[in-house]
Design a protein that fits this description.
The radius of gyration is 21 Å and the shape is elongated. The protein is α+β, with helices and mostly antiparallel strands and about 240 residues long.
């Protein structure tokens, strides 16, 4: 079982560079914009998160009992130098953790992170005011606060111990759409999933937990402002002739 999880993580680590190289190759093959599109803005929303424990924590079953809700938000910088693709870097606050329930009693663990995703940004609908997009890439983060909500439900649960590592790293993928306006910037809606390849608890062969991977899904609204507004308008006219 341990070997299978190790193989799974290794496969993810090998697949991510391959996918990113493929996307970079696709980006290089696209026509360059006369002037890069650059945006800066903010986003925020609601986040549902849990931890995937192995061995399982009984008080987190069914799955909905193990999910805790929180908020997230941050600042966004986006750069697009080619048609249909660009890069996006963010600095985000993430409220992660998990929830347990037993006979009406509830315990929640709140892990507060600062994270930096490095994303490939693929967008569709160059000639339209409405664009669809896909964000994909790695993220790194650090836990800045660890809080307990409620009383531990068992006296032997290892998940109530202090976390062993504050560093986090993993994969992020988002799907959404945005509307570009003439005078009010860009408004966007995105659904994003984050899967951590790291763990707040030690998962060595001699430890109790062999897996404790954070998993969260968020729904965010965002607003971005173009840094080179006039040049972006010129790009839209030039793309129509490509």
């Amino acid at each position: 079982m341990i070997r299978r999880r190790t193989t799974y993580r290794l496969a993810l680590l090998l697949c991510l560079p391959a996918v990113m190289l493929m996307l970079c190759g696709m980006a290089a093959a696209q026509p360059r914009l006369r002037a890069p599109e650059m945006y800066i803005g903010v986003h925020g929303g609601i986040e549902a998160s849990t931890l995937l424990f192995s061995p399982k924590v009984d008080n987190m079953s069914p799955f909905t009992h193990g999910v805790t809700l929180g908020g997230d938000g941050g600042v966004v910088f986006r750069y697009a130098g080619h048609k249909v693709c660009g890069l996006q870097v963010e600095l985000n606050y993430m409220h992660r953790g998990w929830r347990e329930e037993l006979d009406g009693a509830v315990y929640q663990r709140h892990l507060h992170y600062l994270e930096v995703p490095f994303l490939m940004h693929l967008y569709f609908g160059q000639k339209s005011m409405v664009r669809g997009f896909l964000n994909l890439g790695p993220q790194i983060g650090v836990c800045v606060a660890d809080q307990h909500g409620g009383t531990p439900l068992t006296s032997t649960g290892k998940q109530y111990n202090p976390i062993d590592s504050r560093f986090d790293w993993g994969l992020a993928a988002g799907l959404g759409m945005y509307v570009r306006t003439n005078k009010a910037g860009v408004y966007q809606l995105e659904v994003r999933a984050n899967y951590s390849l790291g763990s707040p608890f030690s998962t060595r062969r001699t430890d109790y937990f062999q897996q404790a991977a954070p998993l969260d899904v968020s729904l965010n609204l965002g607003w971005l402002w173009p840094l080179n507004r006039g040049k972006s308008k010129a790009n839209n006219k030039n793309i129509q002739n490509i």
